[in-house]
Amino acid sequence: MAHKVAFITGGASGIGRALAEELAEQGVEVVLADRQAALAEEVAHAIRQAGGKASAHELDVRDPQQFQRVVDETVARTGRIDYLFNNAGIGVAGEIAKYTLADWDDVLDVNVRGVAYGVQAVYPVMRAQGSGHIINTASMTGLLPTGEAGSYAASKHAVVGLSKVLRVEAKQHGVRVSALCPGVIRTPIMLGGKYGRTNLPPEAEPTMMSLWEQLKPMDPRVFARKTLRKVARNAPIIIVPSWWNLFWFVERLSPRLSLWLWGKLYGRIQRELAPYRPQ
Ligand SMILES: NC(=O)c1ccc[n+]([C@@H]2O[C@H](COP(=O)([O-])OP(=O)(O)OC[C@H]3O[C@@H](n4cnc5c(N)ncnc54)[C@H](O)[C@@H]3O)[C@@H](O)[C@H]2O)c1
Hints:
The N and C termini lie far apart (58 Å). Strand 4 (83-86), helix 4 and strand 5 (132-137) form a beta-alpha-beta unit. The longest helix is centred in the middle third of the chain and has 29 residues, at 101-129. Helix 1 (14-25) crosses helix 7 (220-232), helix 4 runs parallel beside helix 5 and helix 8 crosses helix 9 (255-273). The model has no long low-confidence stretch (mean pLDDT 96). This protein has one domain (5-276): NAD(P)-binding Rossmann-like Domain (Rossmann fold, 3-Layer(aba) Sandwich). Helix content is 50%, strand content 14%. Strands 3-2-1-4-5-6-7 form a 7-stranded parallel beta sheet, with helices on both faces. It contains 9 helices and 7 strands; from the N terminus they run E-H-E-H-E-H-E-H-E-H-E-H-H-E-H-H. It is an alpha/beta fold. Residues 9-10, 12-16, 34-36, 59-62, 87-91, 110, 114, 137, 139, 182, 184-185, 187-189, 193-195 line the site of nicotinamide-adenine-dinucleotide (NAD).
């Protein structure tokens, strides 16, 4: 196989880490860019120990200059970028009625601006190559009215929208674009992750986890393998685990029915988390 390079934001943890490990096993050189620089270096080190090619770079995706610099350094070193996984993301849970301005800004800055800055920095490289694949991590929350975490839902709907438009535009330059929509994957983001938050006290964690368990969280490595098969097929919207397609089918068939369904589920979440909510 020709030498391929993947640039992965949020590559230090969870989905980004699993994608990096899988890609490295397939012989792809992986570039891990994360705000958690030391953790990214640990992951890169483990990949190198296992015989793969990996490097780690400190990157806060909210900083467009830093993003451009890390991409420029990568291209100067590797000569190309074949995959951009615009994957870094955070979640801030809670009801919109209780949101602060920071609950909006923190999420939109990472999940929307961070993705846009990645496109700004890497898309010109791929256009010049006449090839490449940009995979923007959205979520099923970018396709469905899942309730809770309004800023997260807004950010992920934005990622789906920008990915669709970019896919249409980029085709003429030989560049592929997909929106990746994970269901529930067992990663630190389930409890807020390093830079996100649940807006709930620690005592609520067991209840939150039992709610997540009902949605059958997938192991990140299994998720990464299934995702990469769909990336290879150039699917426009990648849904993994695939049983979540059923919810998306209902959403397209009848948005009203979907709203009813998610309203029912939200009611249940509300009841279970009510004892922990700030008044
Ligand atoms: N795990 C799930 O169930 C799930 C479901 C749908 C979508 N997603 C999305 O998948 C992506 C990866 O999340 P994950 O589940 O692996 O969570 P995670 O918390 O394990 O990983 C997120 C990574 O992003 C990094 N990051 C956060 N803010 C950053 C910033 N400003 N700059 C650079 N890096 C930053 C973190 O350091 C971390 O390494 C996110 O976009 C998330 O919204 C996850």
